[in-house]
Design goal:
By secondary structure, the protein is α+β, with helices and mostly antiparallel strands. It contains 2 helices and 2 strands; from the N terminus they run βαβα. It binds zinc ion (ZN).
Length: 69
């Protein structure tokens, strides 16, 4: 998981850039990105960064929730 073959395109609707990463479509969708994929989602560099930013934020919120009394 992670690396992909050459020539794949970003799954985000309206993007179409060359993909650099493949991820589970569910995870990408839950990060709030609009994609056209069922199981496997392909992300270009820009959208992968966006995905990482959003999942990082989610994890931080989760942490706060667990830490609060
Ligand atoms: Zn993209």
């Amino acid at each position: 998981m992670g690396k992909i073959s050459k020539g794949e395109r970003c799954s985000v609707i309206g993007c179409g850039n060359t993909a650099v990463r493949s991820l589970s479509a569910d995870r990408v969708k839950s990060a709030g990105l609009k994609i056209e994929a069922d199981k496997r989602a392909y992300l270009c560099e820009g959208h992968y960064k966006e995905y990482k930013k959003k999942t990082k934020l989610d994890r931080m919120i989760e942490k706060w929730r667990y830490m609060s009394p």
